Amino acid sequence: MKAATQDLTAHTPLPSSTHNLPSKLSEVDVNRICQLIVQQLVTMLESVAVFSVYFNLDTGKRQIVAECIQDQMLSAQATPYLNTDGFASRQSHLYLYLQEEKWLLEELPLLEIREFSITEQYYVYICCVGEQSPVAAEYILVCTTEMLSNRQQQLILNNAQILSEYLVMYKERSHHMREIASLSQTLGRAEHQLRNPLALINLYAENLRLALPNGCLQEQATLIRKTVDELSAKLTDLLYYGQQARLQIKQHNLQTIVAESIKNLEPWLKQKKLQIHYPDKPVYVTVDSWQIKQVFDNLLANAVHFSPDSGTVNCNWHVYNHEVLVEIRDRGSGISEDDLKQIFKPYYSRRLGGTGLGLAIAQKIILDHQGSLWADNIADGGAQFSFTLPIKR
């Protein structure tokens, strides 16, 4: 059996900027999840048809993934706008009725089963998984010839919960990538207006430092240079955050990358009397080493900042079949619930003087490497940042 997919006309299309994201969000993953759910429900329930409808963020239209398994639903009339294996280019009046959504007359409650008795022959069960408006609903629909038991309805609900959570992540990532696209456009216009003045200020400050005698004025010239260097570094962060990935992929040992990051933190570690522990066994991943080092730089610097003096920061990794899970744990005060919701947003910072881009950049790098990055609190105190990387690409 093969699930068929089809676009539904969008009542409220998304902004056109969605189609030009630096890292396009394909519908493939969501579509695949819907196909798996549809096929499972068709297999486990005595269904006439199963629909899964969601909003495709690439096309700005709703997408239907559906499967019909009973010959009596098929008519001899061909439908020119749908040509898929799942329906053999033919649909019954019942299928057309379900697709046209004339039954959708009211707002559906999220993650609740609603039963519609269309005729004496068919029963329809609907569960909303996302958008709830009558004109743009996202839902799972199951059409049967017999009433479903509570256990069977629970099966629909379980699958609906899975799809609903996946759609939330899908939309959050889309929003995140639109922010990157907007930032990239702004920075592209501003870069040349900032680089040259900063370089001139840096040059003049160095000339002043060399010409002035030792003392207060020379120290002030040095401070100007240092400030300009910090501004330039922050500008580099901003520009990098808005760029598309240009990965230089090779095989690297995570031990080597972590050791380089720790070396840069040594003055700070000595000041706070901290130690960073990491595994003594090598693990090799296929990554851009410079970019993954930026991830470790940001995450380890955060862990050091929030750790109490004379403590430890633990960096561990676990290897699975096709990926490695990296965990960086501190013993600080943890992350509040509000911070957990916003911690990867651009310009959101819990550190005094921070740009709010460190974690956003780290997340973008991990996404570019086809991994995931998230944060949690530890039950016995502290916070943990975890990310996955594919071992081979």
TrEMBL record:
CDD domains: HisKA (cd00082). Residues 189-393 form the Histidine kinase domain. This is histidine kinase. GO terms for cellular component: plasma membrane. It catalyses: ATP + protein L-histidine = ADP + protein N-phospho-L-histidine. Its EC number is 2.7.13.3. GO terms for biological process: cellular response to phosphate starvation. It comes from Amazonocrinis nigriterrae CENA67. It comes from the Bacteria. Pfam families: HATPase_c (PF02518). The keyword Phosphoprotein applies. Residues 1-21 are annotated as: Disordered.
